[in-house]
What does this fold into?
Amino acid sequence: MELSDTNRKIIDAIIKKAQKVCPGSLELIGVYGSVCTGDIHEKSDLDLLILINDDLGWKLSDGFILDDKGIGYDIYCTNWKMLEEEAACGHAHLAKLMDSEIVYASGHTAVRRVSELKSRAENILKSEKRFVCAENMIKEAKRIYADAMLAETMAKARMCAFGCISLLLDAVMVGNGKYFHKGIKRTFEELDGISLPDCFINNIYRIVTASEMEELRESLTVLLRATAAYAKRDRVKEQPSESNISGTYEEM
It folds into this structure.
């Protein structure tokens, strides 16, 4: 893929650093985010999948600002365990796995393994398994909801409400067989055009703008109930196949 001189220099610097401080730890580097979605502008940072295979690889993590550009860069690493968790669709922020265009690889094995994980996630998003993933997120949201109801301060209640909202957003996306491609600022834009629970976005705004504890708790309750009801709506059952009954009682 075409990269700017600055972005190419950053990637080359990471590769050289890996060769120096953790030889053999760097599996591959992929580019995702604004560079791939076309949302890039002069202040865009560089979203990278930096895949490592051992603990030495964490030395590659860094944060810096390019003086000539005034742009801050955060270099995060991902190991195989973290990528496998993404492939299980436990959340909807899967762009790192699904959208990354590989610009460096230590060998074909790493590339093939990433491709297999991507296929695993794609199969979940296309099958009935995505509903199980969504239901698990809603269950976790209910647990955090209880903390919001018991919170003694508005700050604690807001923090718990944020956890609920984040999980319910993920549940709705995965339930629709989709994931977030863009940054968190574009969340509502990415929800546009997909099936949503009743008054979903309005309820989120009510929670965010709530000035009193009672108002926040009431709005959070409405949001959670609507999303839970939405998850239980009638679904069109797929015909059984080897892929969609794997690991179920039906397969046995």
Residues 79 and 187 are 26 Å apart (CA to CA). Residues 129-150 form the longest helix (22 residues). The mean pLDDT is 89.
